[in-house]
Every structure is written in structure tokens, then in C-alpha cells.
Design a protein that fits this description.
The structure holds 2 protein chains of 2 kinds. By secondary structure, chain A is of the alpha/beta class. Chain A is 65% helix and 9% strand. Chain A folds into 2 domains: 308 residues, ABC transporter transmembrane region fold; 228 residues, P-loop containing nucleotide triphosphate hydrolases (Rossmann fold, 3-Layer(aba) Sandwich). Chain B is an alpha/beta fold. Helices cover 63% and strands 12% of the residues of chain B. In chain B, the strands form 3 sheets. Chain B has a 6-stranded mixed β-sheet with strand order 8-9-10-5-11-12, sandwiched between helices. A 4-stranded antiparallel β-sheet of chain B has the order 4-3-6-7, with helices on one face. The chains are: A alpha/beta, B alpha/beta.
Chain lengths: 555, 569
């Protein structure tokens, strides 16, 4: 697929124009014919008034005007469609390119941006770009062609009337300047809008997860505050238009008066003034749109800047990535040794291929951080890794799609999914397993419990084809009985027994079931590393577990 | 939603009592515009007429300049005041919809599907109000004053030359009606576009939320595939709408030659002999073409605004019709609850049956079970989220029938749920606990620090900003627990104390439970026995049934319970 986003604004527009050159060629031909048709009208009206002054207008042909009307309808419609189509397609292509890029690169590259911001770029900003090429280019073309057709036409007979256009042009220029000045409000408004959206997003989360909280009033107050600020900016931006908007009508009137004076000085007739007013009218449309074009262009430009800001972040490796790229990965003793920086210290983690390694340590010692660093590092170095985070995300889609994520599935893959659903006790979600697979999980998996969501994510990871599986606290919402069943069947099943599992846990049971243990500490780094049977006998490890299971009244 | 109620509601949305002064001012502007409109054709005729007369021309010129200036001022005032009005109106509409949505319980279509997921809420509150706002930013309000102006012009011209005046009047009215009819047909198409836009917003929200997940899960372009599908659908609908759009505006554009042709047919029968009157007629056509054309473009803006308001109305209405009652949370007292569930079933799926227990203030009830035993479902029922089960809940002496939605909602205000995923805001700790109503916090915090020593050692003060991303699950649970405590609910539900806890936090959460216990009924649902060993009462749940209940001592004899016990070591 051709890349568009790497270009600068101008080259991107040019590239687009060439990409759809036949559309634009057709569009310009339509615009030309349209203007030729329209430019016929003032002169024919002048003749009409002249006829009235002499013989009466019975002799004039009505059909010419009807013909002009049909021509205008036809060519105007076609020219619009020929401009809109490429813009809409371009919009889709831009969205796709950005989305594919977002999907491909490590998330660390855009960590600093909220989901709301990314949404805004993908949704609103690219829409502004569409408006720019669809509407902006159309009006620029229209103005250009109108000038091309109309100026010689007026010069032919009434060139002395040009000064009378000054008030109209002046008013339009003023209007355009105001529109451009208003852009600073637009930018501020978009930022505020983002804030209001973020407010709604947080309120939604709150509503969803804090049941019966009865503090809605304070949220409403906060929302109204943010939304009022946004709308106040919106009003401020409208003041300029209120002043200059009607100014165009005024300019039109003054132009007419000016022309009347010029015609008087030349000893011209009322018909000449009628002709002039017809011409003025023809200029009005393309000239008036100029001010909107200015708005659309500057909005488009601002949108491009924002899209490019994101793009720039996406294509350059982040510092975290660079650090991981420098870390070492060595293969020895049927395993992998991964050397990386942890809390600023170098740390060597060793994983045996085809074994279960469990990471233990106090809360806050950075197990999740270490695991995601490890997974990211392995992925960046080209390994086939699947990681399930502590709180995995499920898409608003079926369980089937959430497990296979767009992959085409063969019968045996489906069979394995069915088995796993049974093993992970998700079969109770619906009467049959096929119905479980086609179950829609709702937004962010809302229709499932936290534990069920996690288990779907675990199944996803087992079926992902990854050779290294990283699970952050996989069994926190699974009871001990099920946990043992899962680990044991993974170890015995030929399908999965060769996979390398790297997991974190707080449970003694998990450690007992695993092959290797790494005990980490925020200050001391790796406190212990080795086979679990051996380590469990060591004092500091067993002490750790005793502390974990406080207040056991059983003797 | 009947048509008439919708119309009544239009007033509800567009009439803002507090700004009635502005409305009066706007009406005054419209009246002034009627007067200038009436004068315009007369002055134009005289002006054209005086083109070759010396003294007269200067006089007419002065009058015309005054008229132009007056109209300018009037329009300036009109647009400023309408803009102000819309600003106030939008603040009000958004506030109303937001409050209604926030306060209403989650709506589920056919009991399961969420009617308004996040993307949809965003689309309603933001995009649909934006549609109203667009009326201002596109200057569409001017259409009203324009129409009044043109109508007065036409009436005035009728007196100058009734035949042509009437013909033009009729032709323009027909043109307007045709365009309005066309715009009505288009509003359906726009509704389609808006709908697909809303859907696209939902999909984009969903996939951008899950990008991290995709990076860590080998997949086949999942996000791109879903994006592509919705983008293509959107493109399709949008192009379809564009065809109508473009044809519609062009039809309006071709009016100019058509009206001139009409004049040519009529003039011979109209006794017009002065060129000035014909000139004024042509001037009038030119003046009226822009508003008529605008009717085309601006009605589509108004149509968008209308669909926006309709959608907002539908949104609000769905909450208003619920007519739910809320109980103020302060001073809710309860000493005893009896929960008695006969049966609950998800559409022919999982089933809960015969769950009955009693709990008194000061007691802790532990509900224990393996994954999939129905714990999460039971929690949802206990917090009043489903009204589709048969059974009763008795609080003190008051019997609540679970199938009565209103009663169940009343019940739900007694309950606070500390869920594993309770939201923590990127705000101060004090906001996270009080959610903005801070009175009584200091006293509460003093007590909390005494009861939960961890809070002092934690190093996060009430005013410190919380960054949810760096909190552990246990810390999040602690915060939402404190929140529930601060709200002083008589019934506290706790979902599964997270297993990922160090000893300090584990102790803190135990302190928290003790703190609850003294002032409420505490129900803890878990698969980890150690959390609830000290409960007054234990329920063992399996496949949606209670298979044993009683204190720890009694339960020791139950084999299934022993299994849990054995795993503790």
C-alpha cells in the first residue's frame, strides 16, 4: 500500500491530485462548462431590458434560459461529485494507513497520548483533511475558472466598471481575514472538546464500575464546567463573523452604487446597471466561498500537523525500545538468557525452553513492568511471543473473534478452542460451546466477569501460535483446583508442552506447579533464581510465602 | 414516541426561559428586517429611475446608503444575539442529557445488550450537539431573517406591479416548497450517515482501546480489518448521500435562469413599461436567489441539527420514560437483610437457584466457590443490577420484590459494591473518595487513618493526585473501599480481594473490612478461602447452588470445603 502520511502537506496534496487525475480533469471540464453557461446570463438580461425600452420583450427566446438552467444543473452536480469522490476515498485511505501503523508499532511509541487523543486524530482530524481536499480544492478550482471565464467577458464590453467591484472584494477579504483569525479559537476549541470527551469517558467508566455512587451532581458540575468553557470559546469565535458576515451584503450594495455613479459619468443606461448587477451576482458565489476555503485550508493544515505529530512519534523508535534493542539475548543451556535494565540495574533473566518459569516478588516490585518489558523486548527481537496483561482488553466482538483476532481458523484450530473453553470452564456461559464462541462480549468485555475475560485472553494466547507465552498473574481469578488442572494439562498436552511459559504469581501453589522460579525485589534485583523444588527449601523464599499468607488461624 | 410528543419536546429543547430577553431582541431584529425589506424594492426602483436625473439621484443615493447601513446594523445584532442564545442553549442541552444519562441505570436491550455503550454516548453528547452548533458556525440562522426580508420585498413589489409580483411570489414559494420537500427526503439519508458515523465512532473507540492488547497478541491485522470494514461501509453511505447533496444544491443553483425565463413569459402581460421596474424585479430575483439557495444548504444544516436533536431526544426520552426514583443516600439505616432468590437465568444459559441467606449489621458473610460457580452473577444480583430474577429481598421489615424494577432500585441504593475494576480517577485522593462532596471528609479521614495504619505509611495524602496506571490492584481496591465507607452504605459487597497483594496491603484490606464490619453488613465473594476464614457465616457455591453453609467450624466436615482448606498450605 502506498504511504501518504510520510509526505509534507503540499506534496501530499499534489500526490493526491495525481492519484485521482482523471477525476480532477473531468471535474475541471465540468466547472469550465458551468461557468461558460452562467456567464451568458447577465448579457442576455441586459438585452432583455434594452428590448423593453424599444420594442417590448416578446421577441426574446425563453428556451435559452431553460437550456441554461438544465446545463447548470447537470454540470454543477457532476463537478461536485467528481471532487467529493476522491476526497472520500482519500479519507478512508488515510484512516487505514494510520490505523495499520498504530497496530504495527510497539505501544511504547505513543504511550504519552490518551486514547481520546488518538481517537480525535483518527476521527476528527482526518475528517478535516477530507473537507480540505473535497471542499477546498473544489472552491479554489471554481474561483480560478470563474476568473478565467468571467474576466475576459467583462473586459470585452464594460472594462471601465472594474473599480466598482472593489467594495465587494474588500468585504470578502475582510471576511476571510476574520475567518483566519478565528482559527486560533478553533484550535483552542478542539483542545477543549478533547477535554470534554475525556470527561465523558471517565464518567462512563465511573458509572460502569462504581455502582450506586450517588455523587452524580459533582460530575454534572464538572462536565458543565468543561463544556461551558468550550462553548464560550465557540461564542467568542462567532463575534468576528457577526461583524463581517453582513458586511458582504453591504459591500454588494456599495458596489452597485459605485457602478451607478460610473455608468452615470459615462452617460450609460439603466440596462448597463442591470448587466453589472448580474455580473456582480455571478462573482458572488466563488468569491464568497473563498473565505470558507480559507477556513477549510487552515483547518486542514492544522489537522495535517496533528496527524503528522502522531505519525512522527509512530515511526521513530522510543527510548524504551532503544534500550531494549541494546539489551542482550543469549541462548545457552537449553534456554534463553535475557539481559535488561531493571530499575536502572542490569539484570540477567534465564528461561528454560519448554518449561514454566514463575516470577515472584512483593507488590510494587515491578513484576508487571518487568514482564511487559521482557515481552516487548522479545517481540522486538523477532520472537513469537504472546502476552496476557494483568487486566487484558477484550474487543466489542464475539468470543470467537476475541480468541482468533482476525485469523482464518481451520477445523482443528476450532476444535482446540472448544477444548480450551471447556478446560477453562467458560462453557457455562451459554448452552453449547458454539454458542459460547459466537457470544458477543460487549464493550470492553462488559458482559463477562473479570475472571472470565482473563480466561478468554489466556485461551487467545494459547491459540496464538506463539512459542513463548507471558502471563501476568494469570490465575488471580481462577481457583486453585482449576489452576492445577490447567497447568498440568498444558504440561501433558503435546500441543503446548514445548512452549515456554513465563508467568507471575503470588501463590505458593503456582510456584509448586512451575519448574523454575525467579524471585525479584525492587532494591536487590534478583534475589533468587533456579528450579522451584530447590528454591522452595530456601529460607528467604519460604519466608516470603509465609508473609503472603498472613493471619491463617489454622493450626 | 408519538409525533405530537416529539413536537412538544422541540419546544423543550429550543426554548430557554432564562434567556427570554434575547429572544425578544431577536424578534425585534426580525421586525426591523421586515421594514427594510418593504422599503428595498421601492428605493431600488427610484434609484434606477433617477440614474439620469441630477438632483433626484443624489437624494435617492443618500436614502439607499442609509437603508444599507441600517440593514447591516440590524443583521449584526441578529447574528450576535442568536449566537449567544445557541451557546446558552447548548450548555443547557448537554447538561440535561449528561445528567439524565449519568443518573439513570445502565440500559440493556433485551436484558443483555448495552443500549448506549461509550462510543454511542460520545456520539450523542458531542456529535449531536455539534450538529446544533453547526447551525451557528455556518451562519444558518440568518435564513430566518433573510426569508422575512425577501417576503417583505415581495409584498412591497406586489404593490408596484401585481402581475409579476404575484407570479414571482408563487414561483419562489413553489421553489422553496420543492426544496424543503427534497431536504426532508434527504434528512433520512443524513440520519443514515449519522448512524454509521456513530457506529464508526464505536468501532474506532474499541480498536484504539485495544491496541496494546494487539501488540502483545500475535494476530492477523485484527484492528485494520475491522477498521476497513466500517470505513468502507461509511464511505458507501457517505457517497450515496453526496449524490443527493450535490444534485440538490445544483437544482437550487439553476433557479436563477428559470426565474428569469418566467419573468420573460409574464412581463408582456403585466403592463411594465418602465425599465426601472424590470430592473428592480431582476434585482429582487438576484436578492432572493441567495436565500432560496440557502434554504437548500441551510435546511440541510438545520436538518442535521434536527436529527441531532431528535437523537438527543430519543436518548433522553429513553431515560426519562424509565421514570426511576432515586433515594438519597444519606442516613440510610438497616439492621438486617434476608436475601431469598428462587431462580435467575441468563437467556437459557447459566442458572442460579435457591440462594437464601440472612445477614445482620456487624456481620461478615463469605461466599466461596470455584470459578464459574455463579459468584459474579450473584454479585450483580446483590447490587441490584438485574431485575429479572424471581425472589425477594427483605431489609429490616420491608419486603422488596426483585422483579419490581422500582423497588429493586430503591434497594440498590443501600448497597455499595467494591468491584475489582472500580474506576479510579486521575484526580486527587480526596476526589476519588468523596467524588466531589467533601463535607465531613476530615473527620472520616482521621478515623480511617486510625483504623487502617497502612494509610499513614502509604505516603499519599488526600490532596495528592492519583495516577491510576501506577496503582496496584490492591491499592485500587483500597481506594474504592474507602469510597464505599465514606458513602456510609448499610450493605457492602466486596468482590474477590485481589490475590496479588503483599502482606502490608493484605493487612490494610483486612483492616478495611473490620472498619466496614462495625457499621454495615459485609458480604465478601471469593474463591480464596483465606480471605473469609474469619467470617461469621460461609456459603459454599457450586454450579449456581448453595451446597453448604455455616461457620468455619461446621464447614470443616464438608469434603468440598476441605479441598479449599488443603490448598491453603
Amino acid at each position: 500500500m502506498t504511504s501518504r502520511l510520510h509526505r509534507k502537506f503540499g506534496p501530499w496534496v499534489i500526490h493526491h491530485a495525481f492519484e485521482f487525475k482523471w477525476f480532477y480533469l473531468g471535474a475541471f471540464i465540468c466547472l469550465y462548462v458551468l461557468q461558460v453557461f452562467q456567464s451568458e446570463i447577465p448579457d442576455r438580461i441586459r438585452k432583455l431590458t434594452e428590448l423593453l425600452g424599444t420594442n417590448g420583450i416578446e421577441g426574446a427566446s425563453v428556451w435559452i434560459f431553460v437550456g441554461l438552467a438544465v446545463g447548470i444543473l447537470l454540470f454543477r452536480t457532476s463537478s461536485r461529485l467528481l471532487f467529493f469522490y476522491p476526497a472520500r476515498v482519500q479519507q478512508k485511505l488515510l484512516r487505514m494507513e494510520l490505523l495499520e501503523l498504530l497496530e504495527k508499532v510497539p505501544t511504547t511509541r505513543y504511550q504519552g497520548r490518551s486514547q481520546g487523543q488518538i481517537f480525535q486524530i483518527l476521527f476528527d482530524d482526518i475528517n478535516n483533511l477530507r473537507a480540505f481536499i473535497g471542499f477546498g480544492l473544489l472552491q479554489v478550482g471554481n474561483l480560478f475558472i470563474a476568473a478565467w471565464v468571467l474576466i475576459p467577458k467583462l473586459n470585452e464590453t464594460d472594462g471601465y466598471l472594474w473599480p466598482a467591484f472593489i467594495p465587494l472584494f474588500a468585504s470578502v477579504v475582510l471576511f476571510t481575514i476574520t475567518s483566519l483569525i478565528n482559527q486560533r479559537y478553533f484550535k483552542k476549541m478542539m483542545d477543549k472538546k478533547g477535554e470534554v470527551q475525556q470527561y465523558i469517558i471517565e464518567s462512563y467508566e465511573a458509572k460502569q464500575t462504581i455502582k450506586n455512587f450517588h455523587r452524580e451532581e459533582s460530575f454534572v458540575k464538572g462536565f458543565v464546567g468543561a463544556s461551558s468553557e468550550e462553548l464560550a470559546l465557540f461564542f467568542k469565535s462567532s463575534i468576528g463573523f457577526a461583524i463581517t458576515g453582513p458586511y458582504v451584503k453591504l459591500g454588494l450594495g456599495v458596489s452597485l452604487i459605485w457602478a451607478a455613479m460610473l455608468i452615470r459619468a459615462r452617460g450609460g443606461s439603466t440596462s448597463d446597471l442591470v448587466f453589472f448587477s448580474g455580473f456582480l451576482y455571478l462573482f458572488l458565489e466563488p468569491v464568497m466561498f473563498m473565505s470558507w476555503v480559507a477556513v477549510v485550508v487552515s483547518q486542514g493544515f492544522a489537522a495535517w500537523k496533528r496527524v503528522k505529530e502522531l505519525y512522527a512519534v509512530l515511526v521513530i523508535p522510543s527510548s524504551d525500545e532503544n534500550e531494549l534493542a541494546d539489551s542482550q539475548l543469549t541462548f545457552r543451556d537449553q534456554g534463553v538468557c535475557f539481559s535488561l535494565l531493571f530499575w536502572g540495574e542490569k539484570m540477567d533473566l534465564f528461561f528454560k525452553t519448554g518449561k514454566w518459569t514463575v516470577l515472584i516478588g512483593e507488590t510494587g516490585s515491578g513484576k508487571s513492568y518487568l514482564l511487559s518489558k521482557l515481552a516487548t523486548g522479545l517481540i522486538l527481537k523477532g520472537h513469537n511471543v504472546s502476552m496476557v496483561q494483568q487486566e487484558p482488553y477484550l474487543f466489542n466482538d464475539t468470543i470467537h473473534e476475541n480468541i482468533f483476532l482476525g485469523k482464518t481458523v481451520d477445523a482443528s484450530g476450532l476444535e482446540r478452542a472448544r477444548e480450551l473453553i471447556k478446560m477453562f470452564q467458560l462453557d457455562s456461559l451459554a448452552p453449547t460451546i458454539d454458542e459460547v464462541l459466537s457470544l458477543e462480549v460487549g464493550e470492553n468485555g462488559k458482559r463477562l466477569s473479570g475472571g472470565q475475560m482473563k480466561r478468554v485472553a489466556l485461551i487467545r494466547s494459547l491459540l496464538s501460535g506463539a512459542k513463548i507465552i507471558v502471563w501476568d498473574d494469570p490465575f488471580s481469578s481462577v481457583d486453585i483446583i482449576l489452576e492445577r488442572r490447567i497447568i498440568q494439562s498444558m504440561k501433558n498436552n503435546p500441543e503446548w508442552k514445548d512452549l515456554t511459559f513465563i508467568i507471575s504469581s503470588h501463590r505458593l501453589t503456582t510456584v509448586k506447579l512451575s519448574d523454575e522460579v525467579i524471585f525479584i525485589d525492587k532494591d536487590a534485583g534478583i534475589k533468587a533464581q533456579g528450579p522451584s523444588e530447590k528454591l522452595l527449601k530456601e529460607e528467604n523464599v519460604s519466608k516470603f510465602f509465609k508473609e503472603q499468607l498472613v493471619e491463617l488461624p489454622l493450626a | 414516541m408519538s409525533q405530537s410528543s416529539l413536537k412538544n419536546n422541540w419546544w423543550n429543547y429550543l426554548w430557554l426561559k432564562s434567556e427570554s430577553f434575547l429572544v425578544v431582541f431577536i424578534l425585534l431584529n426580525m421586525m426591523i428586517s421586515a421594514v427594510t425589506g418593504y422599503l428595498t424594492p421601492r428605493l431600488i426602483t427610484s434609484f434606477y429611475d433617477s440614474l439620469n436625473k441630477d438632483q433626484e439621484f443624489k437624494h435617492q443615493l443618500t436614502l439607499l446608503v442609509i437603508l444599507l447601513a441600517g440593514e447591516y446594523l440590524n443583521r449584526f445584532c441578529f447574528s450576535l444575539s442568536t449566537n449567544r442564545y445557541v451557546q446558552k442553549l447548548l450548555v443547557d442541552i448537554r447538561k440535561r442529557s449528561f445528567a439524565l444519562w449519568l443518573k439513570a441505570p445502565f440500559k440493556r436491550k433485551s436484558g443483555k445488550h448495552e443500549e448506549y455503550p461509550l462510543g454511542e454516548v460520545l456520539a450523542r453528547l458531542m456529535n449531536d450537539t455539534d450538529a446544533v452548533r453547526e447551525v451557528v458556525s455556518s451562519g444558518s440562522f440568518a435564513i430566518f431573517i433573510d426569508i422575512i426580508f425577501i417576503l417583505s420585498c415581495l409584498i412591497s413589489f406586489l404593490q408596484l406591479n401585481s402581475t409579476t409580483g404575484l407570479a414571482l411570489f408563487i414561483a419562489e414559494v413553489i421553489a422553496c416548497l420543492l426544496l424543503i420537500k427534497g431536504s426532508k427526503a434527504m434528512s433520512k439519508i443524513f440520519m443514515d450517515v449519522r448512524r454509521i458515523t456513530g457506529m464508526m465512532a464505536r468501532v474506532v473507540t474499541d480498536i484504539t482501546s485495544g491496541l496494546k492488547e494487539l501488540f502483545y497478541s500475535p494476530n492477523d491485522r485484527y484492528a485494520s480489518k475491522r477498521g476497513q470494514k466500517i470505513f468502507e461501509e461509511f464511505l458507501d453511505k457517505q457517497l450515496h448521500a453526496n449524490i443527493w447533496d450535490a444534485g440538490y444544491y445544483s437544482a437550487a443553483e439553476s433557479l436563477y435562469p428559470i426565474l428569469v425565463a418566467l419573468v420573460m413569459i409574464i412581463v408582456p402581460y403585466s403592463q411594465i413599461i418602465e425599465v426601472a421596474i424590470l430592473a428592480a424585479l431582476i434585482d429582487l430575483i438576484q436578492k432572493s436567489i441567495t436565500p432560496i439557495k440557502d434554504v437548500a444548504s441551510k435546511i440541510s444544516v438545520l436538518a442535521r441539527a434536527k436529527t441531532g436533536i431528535d437523537r438527543l431526544h430519543q436518548f433522553n426520552d429513553s431515560f426519562e420514560q424509565d421514570n426511576f426514583e432515586r433515594v438519597d443516600f444519606v442516613d440510610l439505616e438497616a439492621q438486617r437483610m434476608i436475601f431469598d432468590l428462587n431462580v435467575f437465568q441468563y437467556d437459557q444459559g447459566f442458572k442460579l437457584e435457591n440462594i437464601k441467606f440472612e445477614i445482620k449489621r456487624g456481620e461478615v458473610l463469605g461466599i466461596l466457590g470455584e470459578s464459574g460457580c455463579g459468584k459474579s452473577t450473584l454479585l450483580k444480583l446483590l447490587s441490584g443490577q438485574y431485575h429479572t430474577f424471581s425472589g425477594t429481598i427483605t431489609i429490616d421489615d420491608k419486603v422488596i420484590h426483585a422483579q419490581n424494577e422500582k423497588e429493586l432500585r430503591h434497594f440498590s441504593s443501600y448497597v455499595s459494591l467494591i468491584a475489582q475494576d472500580s474506576h479510579v480517577f486521575t484526580e486527587s485522593l480526596i476526589f476519588n473518595i468523596t467524588l466531589g462532596a467533601e463535607s465531613g471528609f476530615e473527620e472520616f479521614w482521621g478515623l480511617a487513618e486510625k483504623s487502617i495504619p497502612y494509610l499513614k505509611r502509604w505516603g499519599v495524602g488526600p490532596q495528592d493526585k492519583i495516577l491510576p496506571k501506577v496503582l496496584s490492584m490492591g491499592q485500587k481496591q483500597l481506594i474504592s473501599g474507602l469510597r464505599a465507607l465514606f458513602l456510609k452504605k448499610p450493605i457492602i459487597l466486596m468482590d474477590e480481594i485481589s490475590s496479588g497483594l503483599d502482606s502490608e496491603l493484605e493487612a490494610a484490606l483486612r483492616d478495611l473490612i473490620k472498619f466496614f464490619q462495625s457499621r454495615s453488613m459485609t458480604i465478601i465473594v471469593t474463591h480464596r478461602l483465606e480471605t473469609i476464614l474469619n467470617s461469621h457465616q460461609l456459603l459454599l457455591l457450586e454450579k449456581g447452588h448453595i451446597i453448604a453453609s455455616g461457620s468455619h467450624q461446621i464447614m470443616r466436615a464438608i469434603p468440598k470445603y476441605q479441598e479449599f482448606l488443603n490448598h491453603l498450605h
